[in-house]
Specification:
By secondary structure, the chain is an alpha+beta fold. It has one domain. Helices cover 26% and strands 20% of the residues. It has a four-stranded mixed beta sheet. Strands 3-8-5 form a three-stranded antiparallel beta sheet, with no helix packed on it. The chain starts with 6 loop residues before the first helix and ends with a strand.
Length: 207
């Protein structure tokens, strides 16, 4: 046992790196970002994009920064900077098992040194530039894919505060009211109510 290291256990105790990964949505306003989030939840999939990825590889992107580390430098109340305060959080091991990996921060000139199968992980990092180019604070992970399907059991919804948790539940209840009303057109109302689904998503608020 002497001198043996257990890296997984050590990482679990680090305050600066989380064992979860978060995909934040964008949006022109809080309402727009919320609508994008609810659309993702409804479809139960994240769509890969190639924006700002050299080589135009389609990827779904995440951050491994812990919730406690999110300040105005990363996500902030509206007006948003790069990200909104709405997103989905996953276990890092779940993302890893599906091919997710940390990006590789390196000079642009190093892109061609990478093997073809690793170039989707490249993110430009230049300390010799003026101004410097440094995105390391994002602690980005990526999965190279067209889409990433997920279930209620595999994702946790991230919202700014409890007001948006209430909005999620209200939206769910409204959808279920419509479904029950439709079912009641072909069966007894009491039986139609049996088709009502409970809100089963886990949700965490940043504030």
């Amino acid at each position: 046992m002497h001198g043996k290291l257990y890296p997984v256990a050590l990482m679990a105790n680090r305050f600066d790196i989380s064992q979860k990964l978060i995909h934040f949505t964008s949006g022109e306003s809080p309402e727009d970002a919320f609508d994008r989030l609810t659309a993702i939840i409804s479809e139960r999939r994240l769509i890969g994009g190639a924006s700002l990825i050299r080589g135009s590889y389609k990827c779904v992107c995440f951050t491994e920064a812990p919730l406690a580390a999110f300040t105005d430098a990363f996500v902030r109340p509206y007006p948003f900077r790069r990200y909104s305060q709405f997103g989905l959080m996953f276990e890092k091991s779940w993302i890893y098992d599906r091919g997710g990996r940390p990006v590789i921060y390196q000079p642009e000139s190093d892109f061609n040194i990478l093997p073809d199968e690793l170039r989707w992980r490249h993110v430009r990092f230049e300390l010799a530039c003026d101004p410097i180019i440094d995105w390391t604070w994002e602690r980005e992970w990526r999965i190279r894919c067209d889409e990433l399907p997920f279930s209620e059991a595999e994702a946790i919804i991230v919202v700014p505060n409890n007001q948006w948790i209430d909005a999620l539940r209200d939206g769910h209840d409204a959808e279920q009211d419509i479904d029950v009303e439709l079912y009641s057109m072909v069966m007894e109302k009491e039986i139609a109510e049996l088709w009502r689904k409970a809100f089963r998503w886990r949700v965490v608020a940043l504030q």
